[in-house]
Design a protein that fits this description.
The complex is a heterodimer of chains A (353) and B (508). By secondary structure, chain A is an alpha+beta fold. Chain A has 11 helices and 15 strands. The radius of gyration of chain A is 23 Å and the shape is globular. By secondary structure, chain B is of the alpha/beta class. Chain B starts with a strand and ends with a helix. In chain B, the strands form 4 sheets. A 12-stranded mixed beta sheet of chain B has the order 9-8-23-22-21-10-20-19-11-18-12-13. Helix content of chain B is 33%, strand content 27%. Classes of the chains: A alpha+beta (353), B alpha/beta (508).
């Protein structure tokens, strides 16, 4: 119990610590001190057109050096809480094949849209080629999901045609790049957006302060100390300088949580308030108060269910006529599936007990 | 086509339809799915469905209840929260011909509300008895519903309902139609004196001369209900009055000895060899209580004035003759005690039954009007226990054999469960009004002409004036809205006014 007491004291010390200041490891960020003046009350005046983007992917076949994935990226348009039908496809689907080539030290991707009309919304395959050294820097699931990540940016760029100046495009997640080449796509999006606001809302936030407390928790504490009521936007937390991005924190509904929101570009106070206020009209759903309904919608529509994966797998394998090739594919797959076998055995043992 | 929903699944007897938001579907609604003709479906059940997990719904409810509703709501509620209607295909109409459905409507087919033209196959029969208009849920279509009087009456009609659901109103509406035809004679035994309309709207106002009224206290234009005691025979009491064996034997002796004066002799207390004095005294008391007939200073008196020593010799014959002329005879039995009421009906029914048996034997039945007998609180004469305890009566005989002689019952009851299944099975038209009692609904459903197994909830939800007509003479169990009798006859009066206008124009 003494050990647990010491752990509890450590946690208590962390919670009771001063707010400190936002902490960013990289010097690319210009950090702003916490101040009550940073809070901007949400007014919810104008109903701007909101475009929401999110994607998902699931493996169909996987081997140590090869992976076939089904990818999906969804778009939803809302004006306030009213759905608007887009002119472009509201959802694109494509297969991606990743293959590692040790002989030339590369990792390459093939992209195959389910419909040819989706191709214009896909990234360039050459932009997805990585050196093995770079590929090994990220975890495998992120690597296999690379096509989907890039497609989210290209889909977002295409969605700009649905929007006018002052409207808002919202991506699920931050506006950070996991790969260097992603920055090219982000910069293109920023260039073409002009006066359209591009934002990224993160469901989770791993940022913290110099006193080791959660950044969003610190902002929440400051809001309470400042007697903030209703929805608000805290601007800015920090600004990324090399590729301008403004990092803010928002509480879009009094009944909701605080989220990290990035806005592409060096966004002023008024623009930040405008973005947050417009989003608040879409963040009133009783199931997810404070989180934009449009992001929930695209998340649901971008998911790939297990049943769908099984269907695609069977259809893919049915195209292989040569029995030897089928056996080879099965051997590739089996090298990745033994964990499932162990889980099944574990399940049987539990049943026996 | 304005869709109210879309078929999303289900099975033969339970097609699932997602209701379109803003287009509320009701229990009993008739919906149409088109395709190779069209299929008519009737809504049997409604239930909430949601894409939102139960826990989140509860949380959202908490938001609303606890004062947070200003900032949170369900976005796109029409997509995420909806109603699923469970409907049964009841008819498929192809080239105007209604058929029993043998396959499901197409999957994902939209459905619309029924329209008047969809029921053109409902034709007006030769001898139309108007029941009301087709009802779709609580909405009333401009499509009248009839049953053929000759067919329906000879195959018996049952009207089951609890109190206050409109039984009397329905019977009045039916009788109004029946009064317009001479092919049907109807005997109405009226224990509440509510059909003729002594002081309110009733059959008295019918423009034809086809309604005859008998009452102990007859108004102007009516007939005094007086039955001479000599008109009564021992068989009239069968199944109505529970006599002991000794009493029955005594009655038989008096009838054999004195003929049609058997009751007078008993009331006078004239002794007969073989009949004990105590038995005679009991019979005198029975006739005093039931018939209201007693001896006073050597004279036979009549309490209530219905059963008398003098007068009323031709009443039964006159009533029977009126029935044979295709008229409606309303007999006010409201001043009679229960058994006396039944006895009056028994005497009249037995007379008409005897006549029609003879007509059948003589080959004259076809030329005679069919006869219907309206009997309220039917279990008093058709109930299982009554028949088991007292034996068959004229009503139960008619229920079993009346069809052969073109005589039928129009039985009204709140307690269907008391009537034997064998009798219920013979009642081929059931006009089902609202009934809150589950046991009664089960009996009604079990003996209906159509499959009403999933109509339990619908029957329970029938409102006043709403009915389901289940008959071997209808294509399906027809939901009906019965008009208020007062409004119904007013609309008939408007036609009369139009006729007068025509006459005026003719004179001009």
């Amino acid at each position: 119990m003494d050990v647990l007491d010491r752990i509890a004291q450590t946690l208590e010390g962390s919670v009771r610590a001063d707010l400190g200041r936002p902490y960013f490891r990289s010097s690319r960020y210009r950090v702003h001190e916490f101040t009550a003046d940073g809070f901007i009350p949400i007014q919810g005046r104008d109903k701007r057109l909101l475009a929401f983007i999110d994607g998902g992917n699931s493996p169909i076949l996987e081997g140590p050096a090869i992976s076939v994935q089904i990818n999906r990226v969804a778009l939803s348009l809302f004006r306030g809480d009213a759905r608007i039908q887009p002119e472009m496809p509201s959802r694109i689907e494509f297969f991606s094949v990743m293959k590692i080539h040790p002989e030339d030290g590369t990792c390459r991707f093939q992209l195959h849209p389910i419909r040819e009309e989706y191709r214009e919304f896909l990234p360039d395959e050459d932009d997805l080629q990585l050196g093995l050294a770079d590929a090994e820097l990220v975890d495998e699931s992120t690597l296999r999901g690379l096509p989907r990540r890039f497609a989210e940016w290209t889909m977002a760029t295409g969605a700009l045609n649905e929007l006018d100046d002052g409207d808002i495009l919202v991506r699920d997640g931050s506006l950070q790049a996991s790969f260097e080449r992603e920055n090219r796509y982000i910069m293109k999006l920023m260039d073409e957006a002009r006066d359209i606001h591009v934002a990224g809302l993160s469901k989770t936030c791993t940022l913290y302060t110099t006193t080791s407390i959660s950044l969003l928790a610190a902002v929440g504490r400051l809001a309470a100390e400042s007697y903030m009521e209703g929805g608000w936007c805290y601007h800015p937390v920090a600004i990324r300088t090399d590729r301008p991005t403004t990092i803010t924190a928002v509480k879009l509904n009094p009944a909701g949580r605080i989220f990290r929101m990035d806005i592409l570009g060096e966004c002023g106070r008024d623009d930040a308030m405008e973005v947050a206020s417009a989003l608040s009209l879409n963040a009133r759903d009783a199931c997810f108060p404070g989180y934009p309904y449009g992001l929930v919608d695209v998340d649901m529509r971008a998911r790939v269910s297990g049943d769908e994966v099984e269907i695609y797998r069977r259809r893919l394998l049915s195209q292989v006529r040569d029995r030897e090739v089928l056996e080879g594919i099965r051997e590739e797959i089996d090298t990745m599936n033994y964990h499932d076998e162990l889980n099944r055995y574990a399940g049987e043992d539990q049943w026996k007990l | 086509m304005e869709a109210v929903g879309q078929i999303i699944g289900g099975e033969t007897a339970a097609v699932l339809i997602r209701q379109k938001s803003g287009e509320p579907v009701e229990l009993g609604d008739l919906l149409v799915a088109e395709g190779d003709g069209y299929t008519i479906l009737q809504v049997k059940d409604l239930r909430y469905r949601s894409q939102i997990p139960q826990g989140m719904r509860e949380l959202a409810s908490g938001f609303n209840l606890e004062g947070y509703s200003g900032d949170v709501e369900f976005l796109e509620p029409e997509l995420r929260n909806y109603i699923i209607a469970e409907a049964r295909p009841i008819l498929h109409v192809r080239e105007g011909e209604p058929l029993i459905p043998k396959r499901l409507p197409r999957f994902f087919r939209e459905v619309r509300r029924i329209r008047e033209g969809d029921l053109d196959f409902l034709e007006k029969p030769r001898n139309p008895v108007f029941l009301g208009h087709v009802r779709s849920g609580s909405k009333v279509l401009d499509t009248p519903v009839y049953v053929d009087a000759v067919d329906a009456i000879t195959h018996h009609i049952l009207i089951p309902a609890t109190t206050g659901r409109g039984k009397s109103n329905l019977v009045k509406v039916m009788l109004w139609s029946l009064a317009e035809m001479d092919r049907v004679g109807i005997l109405v035994l009226d224990p509440h004196d509510e059909y003729y309309g002594r002081n309110e709207a009733g059959l008295r106002r019918h423009p034809s001369n086809n309604v005859v009224y008998y009452s102990p206290d007859a108004p102007v234009g009516g007939n005094t209900l007086t039955i001479n005691l000599r008109s009564l025979r021992p068989e009239h009491f069968e199944g109505i009055i529970p006599f002991t064996q000794a009493q029955e034997q005594a009655i038989a002796r008096y009838y054999n000895e004195y003929g049609d004066e058997w009751i007078l002799k008993i009331v006078k207390g004239e002794e007969l060899p073989g009949v004990q004095q105590v038995t005679l005294n009991v019979l005198r008391r029975i006739f005093d209580v039931i018939l209201g007939v007693y001896l006073d200073d050597g004279k036979i008196k009549s309490r209530g004035g219905v059963f008398r020593e003098r007068g009323g010799e031709s009443t039964i014959k006159d009533i029977a003759a009126s029935l044979e002329d295709g008229r409606i005879v309303v007999v006010d039995t409201s001043r009679l005690m229960g058994e006396a009421e039944l006895l009056v009906g028994s005497v009249i029914s037995a007379e008409i039954f005897r006549r029609y048996q003879q007509y059948k034997a003589d080959g004259k039945l076809r030329r005679k009007p069919v006869i219907g007998i309206v009997i309220e609180e039917a279990p008093r004469v058709l109930g299982k226990e009554v028949i088991e305890r007292q034996g068959n009566n004229i009503y139960s005989t008619i229920a079993r054999e009346g069809r052969k002689f073109n005589i039928g019952l129009i039985a009204i009851t709140q307690l269907v469960s008391l009537i034997p299944r064998t009798v219920l099975a013979n009642m081929n038209t059931k006009i089902i009004l609202g009934n809150e009692m589950a046991q009664e609904r089960a009996e009604i459903i079990g003996s209906a002409s159509q499959d009403l197994s999933d109509d339990n909830r619908t029957i329970a939800s029938l409102d006043k004036g709403e009915a389901i007509v289940s008959s071997i003479f209808t294509k399906f169990a027809v939901p009906v809205k019965i008009p208020l009798f007062e409004e119904f006859i007013e609309s008939a009066g408007l036609e009369s006014e139009d006729s007068e206008d025509e006459e005026i124009e003719f004179i001009g």
